[in-house]
Amino acid sequence: MRSVDSAIKAVLDLFKEHKLLDRTTIVVTALSAPGTDPGGESPTTDTPFVPWIASGVGIKHGQVIRQPVSIIDPGATVLRMLGLETHTEWESKAVEEIFQTASVSPAGHSTKR
Questions:
Q1: Residue 95: burial class (beta carbons within 10 Å; 0-12, 13-18, 19+)
Q2: pTM given for the model
């Protein structure tokens, strides 16, 4: 964990040095082994726990993700961050509750999941 923490700090320091933090969003995720949620809020299960950290432009500060997150959800979430849509056949879904605003469909209609 210390080496990961140091690596993330180095990346954030570089973004800060180049004045990119005000237009950057960072997502850190991993797949843990089956078992207890490291945050202690989920019971022990046989399902892998997918920890997420998201921070930056367009992301709610201090938001705790309550919805189940699948290991396939980063793809749709990153596309959502870029203002793009996922392919309809994808099972991946954006982690909507982290965003400050609802997504907007091509027809201009707000959508919330």
A1: buried
A2: 0.66
Q: What is the Cα–Cα distance from 81 to 11, expressed in whole angstroms?
A: 19
53 sits in which H/E element: strand 52-56
Output the six-digit token pair for 48: 């892998």
Q: Which two tokens stand for residue 80?
A: 């959502």
Strand partners, 103: 111
CA neighbor of 60 nearest in space, from 27, 112, 100: 100
Of the CA atoms within 13 Å of residue 82, those in its CB half-sphere come to: 10
What stretch of H or E contains 52?
Answer: strand 52-56
**Chain centroid to CA 91: how far?**
16
Bridge-partner residues for 26, per DSSP? 55
pLDDT in the model for residue 10: 96
